[in-house]
Amino acid sequence: MAIKIDMLRCFLTVAERGNLADAAGALGRTPSAVSMMLRQFEDHIGAPLFEAGRKSRLTRLGELIRVEAGRELAHFDSTIAAIEGLSRAEAGHVRLSVTPSVAQILMPTILHRFAQDHPLVRINMRDTDSATIAHDLAAGRADIALASLGPQTGCDRHLLFADRFGVVCPSDHPLAADWDALTWADLTDIPFIANGLCHYVTDPDFRPILDRAKLNVSGTAALLSLVRAGMGVTLLPELTMRDTMADLAFLPLADATIRREIWMLTPPETEMTPAAAALARTIRAQEISLIH
């Protein structure tokens, strides 16, 4: 008969309690059942673990086995606790790949709420552009992606929100004075800084402005710094302008149908870890409200 975990636990409990009756009570078994399991353990080892007639004193072999059994049970119990924690989403590791504006504006609230309910789950969040996020998904480097992405093979897709586009310029720029009365033609002679989100604007009157751009900047922080420095104006979705300094103006486009969509992409829930699935549910439950 092979040594079983229950045998080790029975032996340790008897050694700690010093008698069969107390050990049986601690294990939820009858004294006879505890005695039988202890005898099976000793038969397998081929030597007594306790001194004859007494359960309060271990033999020299019993002392040595007690140390090893205690170490093995501690490891076993730790493993079981980890497995149960993973299954209940109480532990685990989730990899997020998100766009910078989502990371800065939305994720602090979402992750704070998630951490309160799942304090032992580790989160690794990477903020980058949508093309890189698509590569992260395809390569299995992300469990959850939040980005402006179309359908991806093997992924579920959930629309979180859509925000409008606008021209971004210094707050004292002439455009900010009477933007409502202006058109794309009024930007013809104004330096324009292109960025990776400009492709969302398909208005043909915008194309000549984009083609004339001498600067193309991918990072939002660098882009806004250049706008502040007077290098030109740019075009961004509204969320990127949340919590920016008052020295910049956001001038919404007249065409309200031009919007940037942010989607959450994940593997099917049946293929996600419990921790990742729990975070995805938290994200879906978050009310994301944008003006207009």
**Terminus-to-terminus distance:** 72 Å
Named CATH topology of the largest domain? D-Maltodextrin-Binding Protein, domain 2
Mean pLDDT: 87
Which parts are unreliable, with pLDDT below 50 for 5 consecutive residues or more?
none
- CATH-scheme architecture of the largest domain: 3-Layer(aba) Sandwich
Count of individual beta strands: 9
Query: Helicity, in percent?
Result: 40-55%
How many domain units?
2
Q: Over all CA atoms, what is the radius of gyration?
A: 32 Å
Strand percent estimate? 15-25%
Q: How do the helices and strands follow one another from N- to C-terminus?
A: HHHHEHHEHEEHEHEHEEEH
Tell me the number of helical segments per DSSP (H or I, 4 or more residues long).
Answer: 11
CATH class (first level) name of the largest domain? Alpha Beta
Shape: rod-shaped
How would you characterize the largest beta sheet? 7 strands, mixed
* Structural class by helix and strand composition: alpha/beta
Question: Topology, pairings included?
Answer:
Layout: H1 5-17, H2 20-27, H3 31-45, H4 60-87, E1 91-98, H5 100-105, H6 107-117, E2 120-127, H7 130-138, E3 144-147, E4 156-170, H8 174-177, E5 193-194, H9 207-211, E6 215-216, H10 220-228, E7 234-237, E8 248-252, E9 259-266, H11 274-285
Parallel strand pairs: 1-2, 1-3, 5-6
Antiparallel strand pairs: 3-9, 4-7, 4-8, 4-9
Helix pairs in contact: 1-2, 1-3, 1-4, 2-3, 6-11
